[in-house]
Amino acid sequence: MVHPTHLYEQLADDLKSIIAAGNLRPGDRLPSVRRLASERHLSVSTVLQALRQLEEGGLIEARPQSGYFVCHTSARRPQPDARSTPEEPVPVDVSQRVMRVLQAGRKPGVAPLAFALSDTTLLPLAALQRVYSSVVRRHPRLLESGMHIQIDNPALIRQLILRSVGWPGPLSAGELVITNSCTEALALCVRAVTRPGDTVAVESPAYYLMLQLLESAGLKALEIPTDPRSGLSIEALELATRDGRVTACLLVANASNPLGSIMPDEHKRRLAKLTAERGVAVIEDDIFGDLHFGSARPWPIKAFDKTGNVLHCSSFSKSLSPALAIGYVAAGRYRSQVVLQKAITSGPTNAIMQQVVAEYLETGAYDRHMRLLRRHHAQQVDAMRAAVARYFPAATRMTEPQGGLVLWVELPDEIDTSALFDRAIASDVAYVPGELFSASGMYRNCLRLNCGNPFTPAIDDAVRRLGALLAQQATMIPLPVSDRGYSCFR
Ligand SMILES: Cc1ncc(COP(=O)(O)O)c(C=O)c1O
Questions:
Q1: pTM of the shown model
Q2: What is the widest separation between alpha-carbon atoms in the chain?
Q3: Which has the closest alpha carbon to 257: 279, 288, 216?
Q4: Does the pLDDT of residue 485 top 60, yes or no?
């Protein structure tokens, strides 16, 4: 990296980083020249020179009598091409913005298009309640089982192994740890295999929780380009891991969040081999593996793991109920580090809930329930896609998810979904702005919609209101309705 030699270059670089991190957004006014000069102990002409450099680079613009403003095109970097070389690792700073969006999305009366959650009417709550009552009645001693060490329920471990027997490499009891959720499993794995300052490869766009986990552990993110159908680019990962700077790779290979892509088996096989050879630990989040829309459950990367290098995480939050808070990790050769992290973070996992999930799985009802749930989700995603095509501005593009319950939407360049968020909440509709899926401020013209709810007239109306808001921001000339090209990612 070239270090600035002049004071004006230093100031220009600092302002660039502030803009890239999203702390100064398109349309925001920069502090005045006098204020910058006085606060940075620089002359007015040095400040002007720095601003001129940013202006020439198209990052800011001068408006007569008003000052300098961040340009609307500046915050959006080009969307990465799945074949392109990855960029430099960057520190992560998304958590505060994620928390703000999630809090706002919980406001009563706001249409639930932000959280990736199924409507509770689609979950087998009555059956789970029956199992729960029966477990509590038959096993009163579970209430006494408080221990400081992790005790994994053998019946649950057995069920997890049974569910993987069709994979080329099934899970084994010696590598499993039951956790309080998939979030906990991922957090333990990240801490088990990295040290602060390390670089972790993530998908671009990446599920914002992954970025938050890196941020809280003091790690840098290296954003790897993805393809909307096949997920993370193996070629780009190959390039990124050549020089040994990547410690781990964190990804959702099956029905990724937010793209809904499923990585082909051949890519999974290559990824497992490449990372094992290069000593890059793989943390795989397979929470949507059972929520595919195809005819057969896609294998996880873990199925191709020959060396214990893959940490395979999941939970029953999306399939049965988030309230169970039961997840797990098959941690391969990293199990003892994960167990240690668990002991010092949360202690053992709720013994009653472990037994409830084990007994529910033993009834055989899970597969029947999942067939129905997958069908509902696939229909809801279709209905959401049709509504986006009806109401969003022309030239909007969207994914064709192969599983999961979210839809990723790419809007015309001039639309800034972060800037619009508060107005959407005021119109009682939530979503997740695209920039929260990038450590480097990409995807400001994108957003993610939850499709976990039955597509009622109320949801349709929420998508219509959101479309109207977005259309107000689109400055492009509307096409005649018949020419509108609502293309899909390919
Ligand atoms: C990809 C992915 N992983 C993990 C989670 C969180 O799972 P849990 O509720 O079990 O922590 C989510 C929730 O949206 C998710 O989308």
A1: 0.81
A2: 80
A3: 288
A4: no
